[in-house]
Design brief:
279 residues, alpha/beta, Metallo-beta-lactamase, Chain A, seven-stranded mixed beta sheet, six-stranded mixed beta sheet, 15 strands, 21% helix, globular, binds zinc ion
Length: 279
């Protein structure tokens, strides 16, 4: 197996919303905000080469929305899905499987592209993976989460006939050396791939832990549907991670790709940060 970081660029989100109840005077020390109170976040996807499969985990925000939509998110940086794949000698048509941790626009936006008047899957030969519970949650969204579940990101995948569901069962074996964990606090039935790689377990954290800045337990995003559930899920996961020396792969951390954890007097905190290519 080979793993590759796929950078798709940076966006900005309100710092207060990203840190929930934590006051700005505290979070701004590690995540400085701009004049509009926005902080920069990565949209860092993951590519898994395994046998004949080329599996992409999440897809970034994509490029099909209108100017007004993008004006809220201040996309920046030189990376895109196509460029990052090309640097590895791949194109979108080579991807065999697209695994969607959940269907918020910054994770699934890149899965669908505009082709004239039509919307079509961006990865023309891929099977798309979600789970039934999350899919239902996304296509009939609650009013609070509706702005994150955009129909144009989601419905064309189903219409293409290439959508499949992972069975919702904790730590289910999905592919060779890839198991899936489920989390329910950020949104219903978000999926976290756990990958056996070079003798390590690498966990793609999605929005259970967006960045190292979110390690302290009360640092839960205001975007989360069930913040206390996130808190207990994070607590249990961090204990499991430190116990088993997991490597955490961070989708949204603007600087750090990966980290390991250790116990400290303050609780579980970062031990090391490094890039995936250093493993
Ligand atoms: Zn999310």
């Amino acid at each position: 197996m080979k793993l590759h970081t796929i950078n798709t660029g940076f966006f900005k989100l309100d710092g207060g919303a990203m840190f929930g109840v934590v006051p700005k005077v505290i979070w701004q020390k590690t995540n400085p905000a701009d004049a509009n109170n926005l902080c920069t976040w990565a949209m860092r996807c993951l590519l898994i080469e395994e046998g004949n499969q080329l599996i992409l985990v999440d897809t970034g925000i994509g490029n099909k929305q209108d100017e007004k939509f993008f004006s809220h998110y201040y996309l920046h940086g030189n990376d895109s899905m196509e460029k990052s794949l090309a640097q590895l000698g791949f194109s979108t048509g080579d991807i065999t499987d697209v695994f969607l941790t959940h269907l918020h626009f910054d994770h699934v936006g890149g899965a669908v592209v505009r082709d004239g008047e039509q919307l079509k899957p961006a990865f023309s030969n891929a099977t798309y993976w979600s789970n039934e519970k999350h899919w239902q949650w996304a296509v009939e969204p609650n009013a609070r989460e509706k702005a994150s579940f955009l129909k144009e990101n989601i419905l064309p995948l189903q219409e293409s006939g290439r959508l499949k569901f992972v069975a919702e069962q904790e730590n289910i074996a999905w592919q060779k050396d890839i198991n899936i964990s489920f989390a329910y606090g950020h949104t219903d039935a978000m999926m976290l791939p756990k990958i056996n790689y070079k003798g390590h377990t690498i966990v793609y954290m999605a929005d259970l832990l967006p960045s190292v800045g979110h390690l302290p337990l009360p640092y839960v995003m205001a975007y989360d549907m069930f913040p206390l559930k996130t808190l207990t899920e994070k607590q249990a996961f961090l204990a499991e991670a430190v116990e088993n020396n997991y490597i955490l792969y961070l989708e949204h951390d603007p600087v750090n790709e990966c980290c390991t954890l250790q116990h400290t007097e303050k609780g579980i905190r970062v031990a090391d940060t490094f890039n995936l290519s250093d493993i």
